[in-house]
Amino acid sequence: MPTRQIEVTDWHLEQLGPAELRPARTPDVPAAIARAELPSPELSRYLYTAVGGGHYWTDRLAWTYDQWLNWLSRPGVETWVAHVRGTPAGYAELDPQPDGVVEITCFGLLPAFTGRGLGGHLLSVGAARAWDLAARWDDRKPTRRVHLTTSSNDAPAALRNYQSRGFRVYDVTVATGTFDHTPPGPWPGAR
Question: Which residues belong to the signal peptide in this entry (predicted)?
Answer without folding.
Answer: none
